[in-house]
Design brief:
By secondary structure, the chain is of the alpha/beta class. The protein is built from nine helices and 16 strands. Helix content is about 25%, strand content about 20%. The strands form three sheets. It has a ten-stranded mixed β-sheet with strand order 12-4-5-3-2-13-14-1-15-16, with helices on both faces. A four-stranded antiparallel β-sheet has the order 7-8-10-9. A two-stranded antiparallel sheet has the order 6-11.
């Protein structure tokens, strides 16, 4: 691939992602999301049934878990190479091999110091009921490993909408003008001499206040602090409901459902991920105009979302049907893109 200023982007590429990634320039991609075939040893992994997919399935399973890890590892090595220093990788997997993937592949290639999070996507669908006695709990979650290339990775804080139960539980107070708020601590997590002062008769906490005296006076004038009449009670910060962006997203993602059979997003791809899942990942780890890569694009959800969020994108798949389905999905927009077979451009589309 050419240097970044001339790099052809918005591309669908048919072929083996290992060989295709080797042609990319180093440090040319901002974000990689990959949802590789899981190590589940089930024939349902064969979705399209065309020659490229069948060949890939056979390659992965030729020698059990060690062969699967070798197959995946050499691809992740290339992904690490093409990521920018500020880039990140999100690898989606399940319980069959997640422990092996983290320790044997991701920690070794990216370094344990660049592990950022293990995200647990709790899928809302049930695992089914049976009269047969079981000796274990059902599986209803996937792992998404988040690693960065270095310590200065792009990361944008993400919030979810505050649900009614959360609001009712925490925002229990009102100002005279009716503005709802909740109280939050103003205690410093560590002692600092300049944060240890008395304010309006209220003694400081043991480790001092979280803000300086100047900031305390400023917030007091703006009505952002709560000062109880009893000087033995603590001054606290007011957080107004109308200023809250939402709840900060943590590592348990239980607010994004799998696609229902009747969802408008459905394109007939059995393992299709919801657009909301990819939207959260792309928003948090990339910026407007950045380049997003999905080397196992499947039904093209990553690319469709990247397009909506004004990111540049590249998708790779070994299945001709996957490329065709994704092409049809993306043709609903006016965005120009190319469809290629490795080493041989097929056509341009818009």
């Amino acid at each position: 691939m050419n240097n970044e200023s001339q790099a052809p982007v918005n591309r669908l590429i048919l072929g083996d992602n290992l060989e295709i990634l080797k042609t990319f320039d180093a440090e040319s991609v901002d974000l990689i999301y990959l949802d590789p075939p899981f190590f589940s040893n089930k024939n349902y992994e064969v979705i399209w049934g065309d020659e490229g997919e069948m060949r890939s399935f056979t390659d992965r399973w030729a020698g059990g878990i060690s062969h699967y890890l070798d197959w995946l590892k050499e691809r992740v090595e290339q992904m690490h190479r093409v990521l920018k220093k500020t880039g990140s990788l999100f690898l989606h997997c399940d319980w069959h091999a997640n422990a092996y993937i983290r320790v044997e592949i991701l920690d070794r290639i990216f370094g344990a110091r660049n592990f950022r999070n293990e995200i647990i996507w709790k899928r809302k669908n049930s695992v089914g009921q049976s009269n047969k006695k079981s000796n274990q709990f059902g599986y209803n979650a996937d792992s998404i490993f988040f690693y960065s290339k270095g310590k200065n990775n792009v990361f944008n804080t993400i919030f979810t909408d505050s649900n009614p139960e959360y609001i009712e539980k925490f925002f229990t107070k009102k100002d005279d003008d009716g503005r709802e708020y909740r109280l939050a601590t103003l205690t410093s997590p560590s002692p600092r001499p300049n944060l240890t002062y008395e304010y309006k008769g209220h003694k400081p906490p043991e480790k001092g206040w979280a803000i300086s005296l100047e900031k305390m006076i400023e917030w007091d004038k703006e009505g952002k602090i709560y000062i109880p009449d009893d000087v033995n009670k603590r001054i606290q910060r007011k957080i107004y409901l109308d200023e809250v962006k939402g709840q900060l997203v943590q590592t348990i993602w239980d607010d994004i459902d799998v696609l229902s059979p009747t969802s408008n997003e459905r394109i007939g791809y059995p393992t299709q991920k919801p657009e909301a899942l990819l939207e959260r990942i792309i928003k948090c780890a990339s910026n407007d105009g950045d380049l997003v890569l999905d080397p196992f694009m499947g039904g093209g959800t990553t690319l469709a979302v990247a397009k909506k969020l004004n990111r540049r994108w590249i998708g790779i798949d070994q299945s001709t049907v996957a490329v065709k389905v994704t092409e049809q999905r993306l043709q609903k927009s006016s965005q120009h893109f190319t469809v290629e077979c490795y080493n041989t451009p097929i056509k341009e589309a818009s």
